[in-house]
Structure formats: C-alpha cells, structure tokens
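ok trying again, last paste got cut off:
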Amino acid sequence: MSDLNISNSNKIPMVAIAGRPNVGKSTLFNRIIRFRKAITDPTPGVTRDPVEEITEIEGKLVKFIDTGGYKLEHEALDDLVVKRSLEVVAEADLVVLVLEVKELTAEDQTFIEELRPYSDKLMVVINKVDGPEKENEIWNFYSLGFDKVYPVSASHGYGYGDFIEAVYERVKHIGSDDTEKEVSADISISILGKPNTGKSTLINILTNSEASIVSDIPGTTRDIVEGSFVFGEHKFKVLDTAGIRRKKKVHESVEYYSVNRAIKSIDESDVVLLLIDSIEGLSDQDKKIAHLIVKKGKGVIIVLNKWDLQADVPNAFEAVSDRVKFLFPILNFAPIIPLSALKNEGIEELLKTIVKVNTQLHKRVETSALNSHLADWVEEHEAPRSTKGRYKIKYMTQASANPVKFVLFINNKKGFPESYERYILRMIRADFGLSSIPINMDFRD
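nice, full thing came through this time. structure:
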C-alpha cells in the first residue's frame, strides 16, 4: 500500500452544520448546495453519516458537511452518530449551529455547552423563521450569550441571503485561489451491494478516515457518503451507498430513498465495486444490481469481501471465481478480486484493477484500425448465410467511450446471428485490449 496517499486538502474551508435532530440541518444543507443530496424526512435521526458537498459562494469553493443530530438519550447507533458529529465539528473551520425558533430543548442547551470551546468559530442560525412576524421570537436566544444570531427559513429561503453572506465573510480568507485543482478527481467509484457486506469498512480503509459509520446493524448507511484519496497518479472520488435489499423488504420511506440514491450513484461513477460477502455468496439481488451496472455501460469489479474467513483450501479462489462466472454470465468480463476490508488485505490489487478498468473505459479506437481488423476477422471467419444470401458487416466505428459503444452497419439486420455478434465482440476485446469492461454493439441496416 506504499502508493496509497490520502488526499486531505486544507485549502478548501470546511463548514459543519450541527444541531439536534429535526431542526432542519439537512434542509439548510440542500439549500446551500442547491440540490437535494441529504435525505430530509420528519423521522428523527435520518442523517447518520456526515454528508458533504463542495459548492461555490461568491466565486469561492467551500465544503459544507451535514452532520447527524446531537442526542442526549442514546439507542442503537446514536453513540456512533454523536461521536462522529463532534469529530467533524472539531475539524471544521466554521460551525453552523442550527436551533429551532419554536423551542429550546435540553439537548440544545447541552450541545451549546459542548460547543463553547469552539465559540470563536461558531455561528448560530435560528431556523423555521418563516417571515418578519416570527423574528420577534428570536430575541430569547440572545440570552444564551451569542453576539449575533441569524433567523432563516431553510425550507422557504427567508433570511437565507444574509446568512450565506455572513458565512462567506467568515471563510473568505481561508485557503487559496487554486482550489479547482484540489477537488477534481479523474476516477469516480461507487461501492454497491447488499447490507452488511463491508461497504463502509472499505471506504474508511480507502480514505484512511471514519467517513462512514460502521455497524453490524443492517441499513446503517442512508445518505451517499463521499471520500477522496490518491493512488499513484490518480485521484479518486469514492461513494459509499446504502445496502440494496429486495423491494418487498424495503418498508420505511427513508430506506426507499436511500436505495434509490444508491442506484443513482451508478450514473456518477466510472467504476462500480460490487461488494459480495464471500461467505454468504451471491444472491438474486446481486444479479439485479449487476444488470443495472452493465445496462449503463459502467466498469464493474466483483469484490469478494471477508476473504480472510474463507477456509484455507487449495484453489479456493479459482473455485469461487468459476461459480461466480457461472451464476453471473452477464459479468463474465468483470475482474474478480478477493479482499478483507477489515484486515486491509487485497486493497492494492483492487486499486490497480480499478485503474486498469478505467483506462479501458476511456480508450478510443481509430475507425481505420477498426475496419482493418474487421476485414481480417471476416476473412478468418465469414458470417453465416440467410435465405437472402450471406450476412455482411460493411463498416464499423466507435460511437463513444465511457460507456464504450461500437456501431456496425450491416446488409441485413433482421435475423443477424447472435453467435456472430459474440464472435465480433470477442475479437474486439482481444485485439484492442478491452477485456475487462462492458461493450455495447449497435447493429444497423
């Protein structure tokens, strides 16, 4: 892992949004970044992992982080959520404490005391102030010892302009002007799979952080959690997603949105890591995820996690790989990597494979080279005949890279033999080094 360097840039100011559950932190976060990224729901404690996004304010890039709600009474994952939120607060350049105009609770007051050491970087927002008539209610909050509070309505936008201008004034001197280079990643990956396959453990290993909360409780991850790191000459963006279960097992609306966002993360990725518990093996749900990935033309690597728990028998990997290819014919091109995220084993081989797959995804083949090879392929193995004569491929070209698509013009599309399509696909892979990616071929009359 000597080539794995963690990318932690201090040039972009970091703003943490904190507060107890249901005060509107995620709604404010979504308004700031100008699209819905954090899940918003009346259910208390929806946000668990910190959710971050870089946005621009007055021409300056700023990273905002939506944190989990601060609670006094802890159950299930609450200890981990609060611990992670306080860690983000400690790291941030500016902390936006969100309170609700309707009430000041014991949780609010305890949290305020916890934030006293950060008073020099604290900014207080009173949310759910929907208009001027409600501003009279904010004066009570000055009794807490704050010099300035900002009344806003995160959902309706009231007071937002003054608030965001104040944020800019607090962070405009932090960092440098060349931050554009700091945030551009050349390889984007997402980690998909069923719950409890080790997705959050893997992203934490890759980013050398605790970006995702790790727990044995299924469905721990809800929002998309992002991280970044550098390996060799490449900067990666990695997305940890919610575990994808079968539809009939998804009951609560929060999980429904989580799963939908996990599926949409495929569109944002160059390469998808399909994480499979090597002990439990494959499931029908894994196959459905695989079909989605291939349909979208994304690179995919089958990752057999928890490999350290496998019995130490000869040719175990070959046996498992053969079974995966038998059950996953649609992914017969996909590399298979065994690893243990928990023990940090197999990570370097995984990263090298991601780089290899990404390189193939972006490869372009000159039309002249394609048709020169096509002539050789046809000479070596002619297409079958139909009732109207022999099928002929007259011309081919590469229509796109990432996803990789070739267009082939033929004399008769109707009934064109699938066996010959597979032959042409096999030759494209072999002659142009495209063995590890999905390839779409469009046959046209």
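cool. The longest strand covers residues 393-400. Residues 367-444 form a domain with the GMP Synthetase; Chain A, domain 3 fold (CATH 3.30.300.20).
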